[in-house]
Design goal:
Elements: H1 11-14, E1 23-26, H2 36-45, E2 50-53, E3 73-78, H3 85-93, E4 97-100, H4 103-115, E5 119-122, E6 136-139, E7 142-148, E8 152-163, E9 168-169, H5 178-183, E10 185-196, E11 215-218
Parallel strand pairs: 1-2, 1-8, 2-3, 3-4, 8-10, 10-11
Antiparallel strand pairs: 5-7, 6-7, 8-9
Length: 233
């Protein structure tokens, strides 16, 4: 990379510097908008002891689920984990530490981390196991628990388009957690379907400014459907 040019041409370069016991924040929701090739590169690297923060952990054999096959994930911070048999096995056996976090709280943890806000108060989870051991304060007669923000050593993100400066546009529901994850990494790596020249993206259409992005790589994507439902004849 030179100057403002964030483009790299290999997945080895894209994920250079990722090491054991780091925290990785991953965009996506279900299998929608996941950085599938960056995840595959982490599997290839064999990095171990990872803490992964994402809405969910993919499915058996695809998405973040492939990192469970070689026990690369030590801890998972997620909102939903119900699509993955191997995940269930490792959770019940005690191999995998899991921190279940309400979806809105998880989104705000990422956003706050990217904004440099160390913690925030939310009513979500008060009086439930989510709030156990957390500081409680009362505002206007209602109780709130304190949640700490999240920062990752790496953030891996999927976008639709980027320019060479790292400005990003997401497409439809594939936006999901990606803009939040993009702000919360010390190193943010983005794979995209198309790279254009600076000035070709309409400024008002940019969802994530390039200031948050460190590396951009052009990829091709399977875009697997998580659960295919068809009408009977």
């Amino acid at each position: 990379m030179a100057g403002f040019n964030k483009v790299v041409t290999s997945y080895e370069d894209a994920m250079a510097g990722l090491g054991d016991n780091m925290t990785v924040i991953a965009g996506g929701f279900g299998l929608c908008g996941i950085p599938e090739n960056l995840i595959a590169q982490i599997k290839t690297m064999g990095t171990k002891g990872l803490t992964v923060v994402s809405n969910n952990c993919g499915i058996d054999g695809f998405g973040l689920g492939i990192l469970l096959e070689d026990r690369q994930i030590q801890k998972m911070v997620a909102s939903y984990v119900g699509e993955n048999k191997l995940f269930e096995e490792q959770l019940l056996s005690g191999e995998l530490e899991v921190e279940l976090t309400p979806q809105g709280t998880l989104a705000e943890k990422m956003r706050a981390g990217g904004a440099g806000i160390p913690a925030f108060y939310t009513a979500t989870g008060f009086g439930t196991p989510v709030g156990d051991g957390k500081e409680v304060r009362e505002f206007n007669g209602r109780s709130y628990i304190m949640e700490e923000s999240i920062k990752g050593d790496f953030a891996i993100v999927k976008a639709w388009k980027a320019d060479r400066y790292g400005n990003l546009v997401y497409r439809h529901t594939a936006q999901n957690f990606n803009p939040l994850a993009a702000t919360a990494g010390k190193i943010t790596v983005v794979e995209v379907e198309e790279i254009v020249e600076p000035g070709e993206l309409e400024p008002s259409q940019i969802h994530t400014p390039g200031i948050y992005v460190d590396r951009v790589i052009l990829g091709s994507f399977e875009k697997r459907i998580e659960q295919r439902t068809v009408r009977t004849a």
